[in-house]
Amino acid sequence: MTPIHVDVAIIGSGTAGIGAYHAARAHTDSVLLIEGGVYGTTCARVGCMPSKLLIAAAEAAHQARHTDPFGVHVKDVVIDGAAVMARVRRERDRFVGFVLESMDSFPQGDRLMAKVRFQDANTLLTEQGQSIHARCIVIATGSSPILPPLLKDLGTHLLTNETIFELPALPKRLVVFGPGPLGLELGQAMSRLGVLTKMFGVKGGIAGIRDPAIRDYADKTFNGEFYLDASAQVKSVKASTTGVEVQYLHRDGAWRTEQFDYVLASTGRAPNVAGLDLQSTGLQLGERGIPVFDRFTQRCGNSSIFIAGDASNDIPLLHEAADQGRIAGDNAGRYPDVRSGLRRTPLAVVFTDPQVASVGFNLDQLNQHFKDRFAMGQVSFEDQGRSRVMLRNKGILKVYAERGSGLFLGAEMFGPAAEHIGHLLAWAAQKRMTVSEMLEMTIYHPVIEEGLRTALRDLNHKLHIGPDVIKRCMDCGPGA
Description:
Elements (H helix, E strand, L loop, with lengths): L3 E8 L3 H11 L5 E5 L6 H5 L1 H18 L15 H24 L6 E3 L2 E5 L2 E4 L4 E9 L3 E3 L12 E2 L13 E5 L3 H12 L3 E5 L11 H12 L3 E3 L4 E6 L4 E6 L5 E6 L1 E4 L3 E3 L33 E3 L10 H16 L13 E4 L4 E6 L2 H7 L4 E7 L4 H5 L6 E7 L5 E8 L2 H13 L4 H5 L10 H13 L18
Parallel strand pairs: 1-2, 1-6, 2-3, 6-17, 8-15, 9-10, 9-15, 10-11
Antiparallel strand pairs: 4-5, 5-6, 7-16, 12-13, 13-14, 18-19, 19-22, 20-21, 21-22
Helix pairs in contact: 1-7, 3-4, 3-5
């Protein structure tokens, strides 16, 4: 077969791969985008978008059932599970279609459908034996679900985020393993759609929350809707004639055996690097066989190989994958002129209800890098004005800043509108604002963001920068 010679070869056409392609094409027309599976990003096919479609249906059902406190009485809420899942797939396919349209706009000669592996640091081989010689190679192969031994051999009764959206209708009973962001989003959505849902974890973690008080608050809140044990003891999970049989130690102290239609495994994802023969590249390989790389250049060692997106096992979020792809493609395209790229302030959001958001340095990092040099302010949303108006008054926000400078360092939140408040705080952190400067910004009344101002005032006072906190201050408005 005729060898292919290009300046840049990119393995994987997901968010990071597409970003790398566009960035590399700004420097050279000799770019090859290689895909070994199907086109369409993880986000569009099996991640962000279909999960949010399911959550939207769950929110509609939940709101319809909880109108009585407003004096609005809704009777006979009926959930058509087949219609719910049909809309999820229909709209999901629409989002995937946008990605496919984008791929179709790439020149045919820039695309290759093939599974490849490394022959050496500058050569890839397809399964058919065709060689691809590249000045630079970008690894953007994404990730796949991890299945612990306990959950294997369950056949068609085992679901992951890559299969759950193909269910023709909603199940009656679902057990979720893994109360991380995705497990909690999908588990709560299923519960609100009428599915009897139970959720198990092994190490006590809930949605990646680092602050113990916030995590405990979230644990109590979620358990008000469905069974959640973040430190569960599960003796066995077995396929049965009707679904799956789970034997576990209930939180009441008794061992129980229950039947479920399906198991949803949300137990993490592993980078797709195992089949690349990375040992042939001469690169230093670290945890999970991932090349050691510089996260500001995405360069692997001193080589002409770059890595981006979930394959890097860095921060598995779409905007991070896009940034990593752009940096990797930019450096591959203008190689050997390798430059550091912009890595933005960390921001993560979990779309449960209440939502979870983390910004900047988390509590573990603060205790490591700013021990005894940071202060914390906080607010409860239980008595916050706009939150009570909407009956969304559950949650806590904690904000952190450096003593002396007053520099805003980060925040963690479990509460209403966390996705929006998280963005405000991420922008403030990226602009290196002080808490005093943040308090100079406009906040309208009445909005949930007034709770943020309360937390910042508390923080400024604890930094010994701001004045004493005035309880029920008039400029905050009632209940702020």
